[in-house]
Amino acid sequence: MENVVELKNVTKKFKGFSVENINLDVKQGFVTGFIGANGAGKSTTIKMMMNLLRPDAGEVKLFGLDYRTHEKEIKERIGFVYDGNVFFEGLNLKDIKRIVGPAYKRWDNQVFDHYIDQFELPLNKAIKTFSKGMQMKASLALALSHHAELIIMDEPTAGLDPIFRRELLALLQELMVDENRTIFFSTHITTDLDRIADYITFIQSGKIIFNRSVHDVAENYALVKGGTDLLDRDTEKFFIQVHRAPTGFEALTDNIKDVQNTFGDAVVIEKASLEDIMYYMKGGVHHV
Amino acid sequence: MFNLIRRDIILQKKQLILFIPIVLFFIYMDKHPALIFLVASIFIPLNAYAYDEKSETNILLNSLPYTRKEIIASRYLGAIFYMGLACGLTGLALFFFDRPFTLTDMAIGGGLFLTFAAFTFPLFYILKPGYISTVVIISFLLLAAAGPPVVIFFAERLTAISNFIMNLSDLVLYTGTALVIIVIYGISWGMSTVIYQRKVF
């Protein structure tokens, strides 16, 4: 089994917002980053993977299993981390462990204690007194203590300071030493992904724009800069989006070869960062 | 599933300290034993719902390896379990304070609680979070205040029905009532399960 998560033609409609015909495979043994602007449908997609939402149409499969028949088996193998605190805020970690732990067959107290030590978390303090970073560490410790094969995280780095963000990414890398493990996490901080992601899934306005390896993305997209006199109806076809400024244009292309053949040295071709791709795909405002 | 039921004790450790004084207060006020059993039974299950109406709790429970059916079942079985526990403790307290009570009092208290639970539990899955506890508490007070006069009013006017009930033997009356309560509780359980399975978090 190569894909841990498979979404086939998944559609979910809400008032004023919908995700439509989502096809998404998450490959086993890799880190997949899930990027998209706020409100693009990241949380909705993740909720459908967790069976918190049921799709109106389409098929959601985890580990090749269906939620309708294998809900417990699936969730037994998932570790989850959400953006906000979902644990009873008045309780301390020890009590939360008493509630969460017995839910899993493979819960491992030793692993839990190990993370509590590593993260320097107090066991006897109410979780509502924790800082955002500590809450994230607590969620992580709880998510990692039952030998989960798939770790699903919704915006784990949002609201964290840069130092802890790096620590978290390092920790995720450590986890990936186990070759069977898969991590799927959403973020809008794209620099997180440059460090650890193997695959990037990009969602925009409820549609998956691409799902490719980091390498592929780097090879296929580029930023092109040059004088506006180079642009006409024919040449503009090479670009996904062009931003014009008095000093010249800047554009995103997924057709590097043609751009090179047509313009040669008249333009500068640069590597496009994920942020560039997100920005240009959105057709955002022009650069000043 | 047992873990889901046990969860209520972990959550309510602090509130449970209040449990004994409340029961003692009612005993001291010389209230009818059946009423004391009722109040004691309501304490834990209703408190549990105050926690569960938060959407975060539902996200957590549904992300853990439980099915939605189990989550609802734990509520309904838990209510019976905690009712039993509360009635036992209350019985002990009454015994120590030398207040006489009969098993009938306990049965009436428990029966009233189950009926109350059957009507209120589904509300928790229908109404918007935040309003539920208020609605339930107000309706409980209203029922407690308005219930007896209404029953007496009807009992006096619909003599045919009250005569029929009066003529039943104790055994028939009690088993009949017990059966009706079990059926209502079962229907309520089924309804909650259906509603909860369609819920979105």
From TrEMBL, chain A:
Residues 5-230 form the ABC transporter domain. Pfam families: ABC_tran. Transmembrane segments: none annotated. Keywords: ATP-binding, Nucleotide-binding, Transport. The keyword ATP-binding applies. GO terms for molecular function: ATP binding; ATP hydrolysis activity. InterPro entries: AAA+_ATPase, ABC_transporter-like_ATP-bd, ABC_transporter-like_CS, ABC_Transporter_VariousFunc, P-loop_NTPase. SUPFAM superfamilies: P-loop containing nucleoside triphosphate hydrolases (SSF52540). It comes from the Bacteria. PANTHER family: ABC TRANSPORTER ATP-BINDING COMPONENT, ABC TRANSPORTER ATP-BINDING PROTEIN ALBC-RELATED. This is ABC transporter ATP-binding protein. It comes from Robertmurraya siralis.
TrEMBL record, chain B:
It comes from the Bacteria. Pfam families: ABC2_membrane_5. InterPro entries: ABC2_memb-like (IPR025699). The keyword Transmembrane applies. The chain crosses the membrane at residues 12-28, 34-51, 72-96, 108-127, 134-155, 171-196. Keywords: Membrane, Transmembrane, Transmembrane helix. This is Permease.
